[in-house]
Write a structure and sequence with these properties.
The protein is of the alpha/beta class. Helices cover about 40% and strands about 15% of the residues. The chain has 2 domains: about 160 residues, Rossmann fold (3-Layer(aba) Sandwich); about 140 residues, Response regulator (Rossmann fold, 3-Layer(aba) Sandwich). The protein contains 12 helices and 12 strands. Helix 5 crosses helix 12 and helix 7 runs parallel beside helix 8.
Length: about 350
């Protein structure tokens, strides 16, 4: 049985509170005209109005719109410090170009509710299940742009941070500080980005003659579980059997912050005893943890680039699909220093 479109569903898809959506749908004062138009547009695309009501809103369907799909997972959602900024970049660019948008975040039952008559294309952000991608491609014959994900089941342009090169440069910087006992901390299988960052790390060690083996250079932790507990277990086991690392290079700044917390609890000084580096340039501002040396990722620019790619694709539909990588610079902060002799 098909689900009835509710005020909450419209609020989720439009990006406004249930209160504002309710006021709009009931024609109450106190809602900006531009906000009202966006909400009515989304409500119409989801089939909320009956035929008589739809006639009142026909002017809003003349402009094309973009369907934005995001997962609603623990680390990948609109509220995320990282993914939320990419989402903001997408939405602000669409608004600047005067395109409408409908957002579906983890609610796949809304996909077949969206009217496709004026749909320009689909932008997905983060890991989207293959089943959902197949459902989308079967429903809508429009261009797809995928941010930080790729799947061979559909034809799509893909936008990535240049994770490999960014991590290669960061790891080389750590090695140039004299560190030889260096470990990568992350979940290699969590996303294409994490896998590419591990590969960049490994290549930098290989070029400098410091790579020994996966067992000696990688703490492959499960990103969906307690990272601090896992890191503490791996660290203590390694210290018992092999000695101590002088630097940890982490798959992102969140992991680097948790690694730093455990190291401080165990009596290490950062960076005098051990250096810690991350990726993304997100400062989590945890007490006693120094700012993390990292790789700059301008998330809003990634979202903007995704929209620009989609608009370009509309005029170049037959061109080969593209895999675009956006580079980032090393940002040196207080969590790294020269290795002790």
């Amino acid at each position: 049985m098909a689900k009835k479109i509710t005020v909450q569903m419209i609020a989720d898809a439009a990006g406004y509170s249930k209160y504002v959506v309710s006021k709009t749908l009931n024609n109450k004062p106190g809602v900006k005209e531009s906000t009202r138009d966006k909400i009515l547009f989304v409500a119409e695309q989801l089939g909320y109005f009956n035929n008589d009501q739809q006639k009142k809103n026909e002017h809003m369907t003349d402009a094309g719109f973009v369907l934005v799909i995001m997962p609603d997972q623990r680390y990948q959602n609109i509220e995320s410090v990282y993914w939320g900024k990419i989402f903001d970049g997408i939405m602000s660019t669409l608004e600047k170009m005067n395109y409408g948008s409908v957002v579906i975040s983890g609610k796949d039952y809304l996909i077949d509710k969206v009217k496709g008559e004026s749909l320009l294309g689909v932008i997905t952000v983060g890991h989207i299940d293959t089943d959902m991608l197949l459902n989308l491609s079967n429903l809508y014959s429009v261009p797809f742009v995928m941010v930080d994900h790729e799947d061979e089941v559909i034809k799509a342009d893909r936008i990535f941070m240049d994770n490999y090169r960014g991590m290669y440069k960061l790891t080389t910087h750590i090695l140039m500080l004299g560190h030889e006992q260096v470990c990568f901390v992350g979940d290699r299988a969590f996303s294409p980005s994490f896998k590419e960052r591990w590969m960049g790390f490994r290549e930098a060690l290989t070029v400098q003659g410091c790579y020994r083996s996966e067992e000696e250079c990688l703490f492959n932790l499960n990103y969906s579980r307690d990272m601090e507990w896992q890191f503490r277990e791996c660290l203590e086991e390694y210290e018992r059997e092999c000695g101590k690392f002088t630097a940890f290079v982490c798959a992102n700044d969140e992991i680097a912050t948790k690694v730093s917390k455990v190291l401080l609890e165990k009596g290490y000084d950062i960076p005098s005893d051990v250096s810690v580096a991350g990726f993304d340039n997100i400062d989590f501002k945890v007490k006693n943890i120094p700012p993390i040396t990292t790789v700059q990722v301008i998330q809003e620019a990634i979202g903007q680039r995704a929209v620009n790619e989609l608009i370009w694709r509309l005029d170049n539909y037959q061109a080969p699909n593209e895999r675009i990588q956006i580079s980032g610079d090393i940002i040196v902060k207080k969590s790294t220093a020269k290795a002790r002799k």
